[in-house]
Amino acid sequence: MNGWNTEEVHAMYPSQALGTLTKREGGLVNVERPEVAGILREMALSGRGNLDEGETRQKALEEANSKATRPRMPYTKPIFGTAIGWAAEVAPPEVLDGLLKHVDTYMNPSWANGGLYYPRCDEKEDGHGNWRFVDPFTGNGAIGYARLNVPDGQKLMWEKAWTPQQVQDTVAVENVGFADGVDFLRSQWCTESANGFTGLVLSMRTWHGRSSKIQPDIVGLPNGQYGVFSDGTLLKTHVQEGLEALRLVIEVGGTETNR
Prior knowledge:
By secondary structure, this protein is α+β, with helices and mostly antiparallel strands. Helices cover 35% and strands 23% of the residues. The protein contains eight helices and 14 strands. A three-stranded antiparallel β-sheet has the order 5-9-12, with no helix packed on it. The longest helix is centred in the N-terminal third of the chain and has 14 residues, at 54-67. The radius of gyration is 24 Å and the shape is elongated. This is Oligosaccharide translocation protein rft1. It comes from Vermiconidia calcicola.
């Protein structure tokens, strides 16, 4: 919605976040379950408490629990995943940072085949109302998306979508897949620097720690002469003419390699 109605989305954020996103100790931000959020919002608007104080949140939690009926399933909608995606789009940076601290504290961050995920958890919350429930959408997709998104990212994609010509003119790395076992820590096309350097910088390492030989294709290079370096050592030179890709052969290990 922020892509096409951004003014309203940003204007609504403070009232929607009130009671729903609460600050905790250590810079963490919690997503309150809807019943608690409603009580907290009413308490804040009526002056019955300070939402930054643990005592106020505990009172709201106890009041919500006293009225709650046990559902068949904890939740049917990915509430936390939706909230963290929303925060990544329109919230102040400290709110998103606090939510990410929360997931790394309460949602059991785990790694499998080089990928970070948050495994399923059917427990709704702990005794202090800290959110713990993890559904597949949240644990496998939404949190990762929130880490990668930039403020107003959906808006930027809506208003400044890439054209076919932009895609063709953009330097990119192809012919590398998940099966190669390589994480790309950096891929940056540099056009300006203090020493006049122009070129592509890649930083890589394998996620499994073993050696892996990859053969990436560098496409979209502007015509000209290039040097291919590995950790500062010149390996070869290349003259780019036309649209032909530059094929590299790189041995990547468990420590960072820079090209």
